[in-house]
């Protein structure tokens, strides 16, 4: 499937090979300190779950990593700013789909002639993903007529079709039942294993975290209070 954009090699032993590096980074919204002195390095091919209670700063951190939010102080070194071969795709909590368009039309938004050999190639990849995630029977359904779970799957497929180096997702399984959440994560796990896709995923879903290998960055009131393996959470 994923062939066009070349992905970096996984090698976490070399400090310089990081993908994202946040150095003493803080974000303030007026008097609200959303992120406080965050120190975080993410390497190619990692799976990182962002956890923490509501208001802890998960969405703010994803926004910084996606390049959508400037730090108030400190430094964010982002792959997409260092090298144009890196593409970071974000699945926002509100999904940002075109309501009046069909599921298929929304997925076509990811088509880029510079990374696909042909529209046929793109279509084949879209079909594969739709079949894997059970979206193929709903291609012609408008987003406004689709349930929350289908919308989340379409947004995720669209993000994967852009062949990102890193995929950032904000609560992407909140409208999916257990079976569909696992199915989605199996697909992402496959992209991670086979293609080196880096996954950064904000979630409250502890079951999912236990089920799949990955690291955790746990936020509390804007502070990164734990960063490491999921087995300690
Ligand atoms: N655009 C904004 N303007 C003002 N305050 C904001 C803004 N975005 C976030 N905040 C505040 O920053 C803090 C962190 O919010 P954030 O949305 O990052 O948390 P979160 O961990 O994603 O929460 P949730 O689990 O509810 O999605 C909160 O106090 C929130 O109210
Ligand atoms: Mg949030």
Q: Key terms for this structure?
A:
disordered N terminus; 9 strands; three-stranded antiparallel β-sheet; binds magnesium ion; alpha/beta; 233 residues; 30% helix; 7 helices; six-stranded mixed β-sheet; binds adenosine-5'-triphosphate; single chain; Rossmann fold
Please explain how this structure is put together.
- There is one protein chain.
- With 233 residues, this protein is α/β, with parallel strands linked by helices.
- The protein has one domain (15-232): P-loop containing nucleotide triphosphate hydrolases (Rossmann fold), CATH 3.40.50.
- It has seven helices and nine strands, in the order E-E-E-H-E-H-E-H-H-H-E-H-E-H-E-E.
- It has helices at residues 58-65, 79-82, 103-108, 119-132, 148-161, 178-195, 206-211; strands at residues 20-29, 32-42, 47-51, 73-77, 88-91, 166-170, 198-202, 215-220, 223-229.
- The radius of gyration is 17 Å and the shape is globular.
- The chain starts with 19 loop residues before the first strand and ends with a strand.
- 39% of the residues are buried.
- Mean pLDDT is 91; it is low at 1-13.
- The site of adenosine-5'-triphosphate has 11 residues, from strand 2 and helix 1.
- Adenosine-5'-triphosphate binds at residues 29, 32, 34, 52, 54-60.
């Amino acid at each position: 499937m994923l062939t066009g954009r070349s992905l970096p090699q996984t090698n976490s032993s070399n400090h310089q090979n990081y993908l994202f590096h946040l150095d003493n980074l803080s974000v303030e919204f007026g008097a609200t300190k959303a992120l406080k002195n965050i120190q975080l390095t993410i390497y190619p091919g990692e799976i990182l779950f962002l956890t923490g209670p509501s208001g802890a700063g998960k969405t703010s951190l994803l926004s910084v990593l996606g390049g959508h939010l400037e730090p108030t102080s400190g430094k964010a070194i982002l792959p997409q700013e260092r090298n144009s071969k890196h593409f970071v795709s974000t699945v926002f909590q509100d999904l940002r789909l075109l309501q009046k368009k069909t599921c298929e039309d929304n997925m076509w938004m990811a088509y880029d002639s510079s990374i696909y050999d042909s529209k046929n190639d793109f279509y084949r990849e879209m079909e594969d993903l739709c079949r894997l995630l059970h979206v193929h029977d709903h291609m012609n359904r408008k987003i406004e007529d689709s349930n929350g779970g289908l919308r989340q799957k379409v947004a995720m497929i669209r993000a994967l079709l852009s062949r990102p180096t890193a995929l950032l997702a904000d609560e992407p399984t909140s409208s999916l039942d257990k079976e569909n959440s696992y199915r989605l994560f199996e697909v992402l796990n496959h992209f991670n294993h086979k293609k080196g896709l880096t996954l950064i995923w904000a979630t409250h879903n502890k079951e999912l975290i236990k089920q799949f290998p990955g690291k955790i960055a746990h936020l509390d009131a804007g502070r990164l209070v734990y960063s490491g393996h999921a087995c300690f959470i």
